[in-house]
Amino acid sequence: MNLLKLFQTRSRTFYVFLVILGMVSSLTNLGILMQINIALGGGASYFGKYNVLAFAGLIVLSFFTTLYFQKYMAELTNNIMYSLELSIIEKVRNASYESFEKMGGSRLYAAVSDARVLGRVPEIFVAILNAAVTLICSLGYLYWISLWAGITITLLMVGLLLVYLYRNNIIEKDLNKVRDLQDNYYNSLRELLVGFKQIRVSTLRNLNIFNKFIFTNRNKAKELSMGVSRKYIVNELIGVYSWYFVLGVIIFLLPVLFHISLIQLAVFITTILFMMSPVSQLIVYIPSLTGIRIALERINRLDGELKVDALPAIIAPPPFRDFTSLRFENVSYMYSPDEKRSFELHLPDFRISKGEIIFVVGGNGSGKTTFINVLTALCRVDTGKVWLDEQELSWEEMSLFSNSMAVVYSDHYLFTENYDEHDLSDENELLQERIEIFNLNGILSKEAKTGNFSTKLSKGQQKRLALMLALTEDKPIIVLDEWAAEQDPENRRLFYLEWLPMLKRMGKTIIAISHDDDFFHVADRVIRFNYGKIVSDTELVL
Ligand SMILES: Nc1ncnc2c1ncn2[C@@H]1O[C@H](COP(=O)(O)OP(=O)(O)OP(=O)(O)O)[C@@H](O)[C@H]1O
Question: Of ligand 1's atoms, which has the minimum distance to the CA of residue 371?
């Protein structure tokens, strides 16, 4: 996606408007310039006695065209900004888990602020167009008055522009560095916010995150930004003082070189003064264009990364699918295969049957969570086949089937809004019954604003609420990652000896990571992972 393509997709009429505005503005500029010069030289106007009317007409035409265009631009600007923001979020929500992990949250925030920068594109385009048209008209007028003098001034201005662009290129590189620093800064900020408790209780950590990361980063960014500002100031001053140089050439050199008359000289000087404002506008807006290009490049890069393994756009939730068996045949998944130390999960032949309670066990780093990620299609398998009721599933179908699984992660996040559209009303008897069963009676309270359950609960209580909500989703498969880890002994006992059997009686299939060997007998099967492989798959017959 480049800048021009961005416009094409947002508004087909943009270019038509741009051409109309360009024409009106060149007509107005040239007209006004000629009127002034004719008045200065005491010559006859083309419009004779309607001179004043023509002058006023030009200004009115310019006023209304610009007004109409500005309104159109305001609309277009907002459309571009908000739809870009939404399209970034759209890509994130359809991205694969791996590309999401690689991206990191801080880059998402940076991309959203980049989208805001892009919202200025139409305004900048119009300003540059106006300035360029005025410049071209003025130069054309100079050529008409004296060809050689016009050429001399054009060469002079091109030379000065090249110096300006060369310096601007150096500034662009510095700006890129500032943006990289900003990404790192957002990352440190995220760590400060997410890990606030750990940072608050350790002075060393507290000092280090501030001194070694945030402070150093901001200092570097400040130095670079100050350098950029200094270079901009020098550039702008060169721009302004170049005019004196050009005026000097006109006043002192042109009469000697080309024998131009006093009236021609006056016309030249007026025209040059007329060009000053558009050129300074160009000087102001070219750096903005640079910033926009950088923002666009970064959004494009993020876009490319998120496209990897992206899911097809989700339009409506698929119906839950019950099943008899889910089978993995020669399935393997590897984290970042390019890296030296990479972990591979391998499932030569593994089957889950409806109604089973399967415990997934094994040491730290043996591959239990990776297995859950593959099972729930968070990670896309590299090789092998997945069969649902002896029907092979594509990656997309597997992703859809994950909708039939209610998952409680070890670091489960309880949403503040009721995205699952649960019936949380007091009249819901089944819900009240489950609140009772999961020992949440008298613990849960509702947020007045959202009507959702408050998430200000202890870790164990949060997990019990998450389990209850997972059950409310009414899906055939329940996946639990170390669910019992935060429970007190009584709730843990209830989980293994009462709640899991209850779920089984309800016809649910349960896949649960567990470290509680005292309760392994509750499961129908215990599968043990080691180095990414299932080293034992024990069926327990009670
Ligand atoms: N995002 C990742 N990128 C690269 N390697 C990873 C990633 N996540 C996990 N791993 C590696 O994969 C291996 C298996 O990790 P996994 O989280 O599946 O283990 P686990 O059995 O769930 O461990 P634990 O009991 O500690 O939770 C580990 O060696 C880990 O270093």
Answer: 18
Report the atom number in ligand 1 closest to the C-alpha of 363. Answer: 25
| Tokens, residue 255 | 């009469």
Which of ligand 1's atoms lies nearest the C-alpha of 335?
4
Which of 76-85, 98-107, 427-436 has the largest mean confidence? Answer: 427-436
- Ligand 1 binding pocket includes 130 (Cβ within 6 Å): no
Specify the length of the chain in residues. 542
pLDDT of 483-516, one tens digit each? 999 899 999 999 999 999 999 999 999 999 999 9
Any idea where the domains of the chain sit in the sequence? 3-307, 325-539
Residue nearest atom 20 in ligand 1 by C-alpha distance:
365
Fold of 325-539: Rossmann fold (3.40.50)
The residue among 260 and 247 whose pLDDT is bigger is 247
Dihedral angle sign, alpha carbons of residues 326, 331, 335, 336: negative
CB of residue 370 inside a 6 A radius of ligand 1:
yes
Burial category of 522 from C-beta neighbours within 10 Å (exposed 0-12, middle 13-18, buried 19 and up): buried
Ligand 1 in reach of 382 Cβ (< 6 A): no
Nearest alpha-carbon partner for 66 in 114, 18, 4? 18
Band the pLDDT of 310: cuts 50, 70, 90: low
Q: How far is the CA of 73 from the centre of ligand 1 (A)?
A: 51
- Residue pointed to by tokens 């900003």: 182
Q: How far does residue 342's CA lie from ligand 1's centre (Å)?
A: 10
State yes or no: pLDDT of 376 exceeds 60: yes
Q: Is 336 in the pocket of ligand 1 (CB under 6 A)?
A: yes
Lowest-confidence range among 80-94, 184-198, 395-409?
A: 80-94
The answer on pLDDT for 351 being more than 90 is: yes
Across the chain, mean pLDDT equals 85
- CA 365 – ligand 1 centroid, Å: 5
pLDDT-based confidence at 71, cuts 50/70/90?
A: confident
Taking 90 as the threshold, does the pLDDT of residue 47 lie above it?
no
Ligand 1, atom 1, residue with closest C-alpha: 335
> Strand, coil or helix: what is 453?
strand
The answer to whether the beta carbons of residues 300 and 292 sit under 8 Å apart is no
Nearest C-alpha neighbor of 321 from the set 394, 406, 403 = 403
CA 531 to ligand 1 center in whole angstroms? 10
ipTM of the complex: 0.97
Place of tokens 């606030």: 196
Looking from the CA of residue 362, the nearest atom of ligand 1 is 21
SS (HEC) of 516-537:
CHHHHHHCCEEEEEECCEEEEE
Q: Whose CA is nearest to atom 11 of ligand 1?
A: 343
Ligand 1 centroid–CA 367 distance in Å is: 6
Q: How far apart, in whole angstroms, are the C-alpha atoms of residue 167 and residue 359? A: 65
Paired tokens of 175: 């700006």
Specify the DSSP element, H or E, that contains 76. helix 51-94
Which band of pLDDT confidence, cut at 50, 70 and 90, is reported for residue 7?
A: low
Topology match between the domains 3-307 and 325-539: no
**Architecture of 3-307 per CATH?**
Up-down Bundle (1.20)
